[in-house]
Amino acid sequence: MNSNTILKVQGASKRFGGVQALSDVGITIEKGQVVGLIGPNGAGKTTFFNVITGLYVPDTGSFELGGTAYKPAAVHLVAKAGIARTFQNIRLFPEMTAVENVMVGRHVRTHSGLLGAVFRTPAFKAEEKAIEARARELLDYVGIGRHADFRARTLSYGDQRRLEIARALATDPQLIALDEPAAGMNQTEKVVLRELIDRIRKDGRTILLIEHDVKLVMGLCDRVTVLDYGKPIAEGTPAEVQRNPKVIEAYLGAGH
């Protein structure tokens, strides 16, 4: 595998009862890229996303992250391997503050352990202080540092989305997987989101993006993979994908 390859998935399949949700799907993502995953409703995008990130266990497939094989058997194991994700439906701790939510994400990389937490050892206290400082840095980075001590539920919808991204960044991931980050946003919020994703990419991060807003995808992504009925039908640059007859038919129908 190319040393710049962050994620390589081959032959991923997933069946739910009598429904074949994914059939032999693969994707390759290089370091520093933003790669989009699109397709009509029911195409298998979310299923593939959930397989990659450990929410669903695949029936078949090989999975490599940063050149090392990993098994997407559970979300926390995938997070430790180096994939952080957000969700289409916001999943924050609503009664915790913004900074506390980000600190939760950062604890994936802690070292003090249970005994340190129970006895509040000096090492634990020092690490906890460093975690909070890093959490506040990340809130500044995504543009909501002024809300660090506000409860998550009191933040605006767009700010909650950015809080989720800050929490994902707190795990120091090799790959950030964003599931419909623009869902429910107004046009102004989408502009801010696009600027943030672009900033994350420019800072050397690698991003996998599922998004219904095709205009946002085509404007942001280096490469795009298109699924339809659980199968890949196209892959390439945004310009190449938009010209592909299979993609046009999948979105507009054979009689367009």
Strand order of the largest sheet: 6-7-8-3-9-10
* Termini Cα gap: 40 Å
Which segments are poorly predicted (pLDDT under 50) over 5 or more consecutive residues? none
**CATH class category name of the largest domain:** Alpha Beta
Beta-strand content estimate: 15-25%
- Which superfamily, in CATH terms, is the homologous superfamily of the largest domain? P-loop containing nucleotide triphosphate hydrolases
Order of secondary-structure elements: EEEHEEHEHHHHEHEHEEHH
**Could you say how many structural domains there are in total?**
2
The secondary-structure class comes to alpha/beta
Number of distinct beta strands: 10
Estimate percent helicity. 25-40%
CATH fold type of the largest domain: Rossmann fold
Q: What is the architecture of the largest domain at the second tier of CATH?
A: 3-Layer(aba) Sandwich
Q: Give the overall form.
A: globular
Q: How can the largest sheet be summarized?
A: 6 strands, mixed
DSSP summary: helix tally: 10
> What Rg, in angstroms, do the CA atoms define?
19 Å
Mean pLDDT: 89
Write out key terms for the chains shown.
10 helices, globular, 2 domains, six-stranded mixed sheet, Rossmann fold, 256 residues, alpha/beta, AAA+_ATPase
Overall description:
Keywords: ATP-binding, Cell membrane, Membrane, Nucleotide-binding, Transport. It comes from Inhella proteolytica. One of its GO terms (biological process) is L-valine import across plasma membrane. This is ABC transporter ATP-binding protein. The protein is an alpha/beta fold and 256 residues long. It contains ten helices and ten strands. α3 packs parallel to α6 and α5 (122-142) packs across α6. It is globular, with a radius of gyration of 19 Å. The N and C termini lie far apart (40 Å).
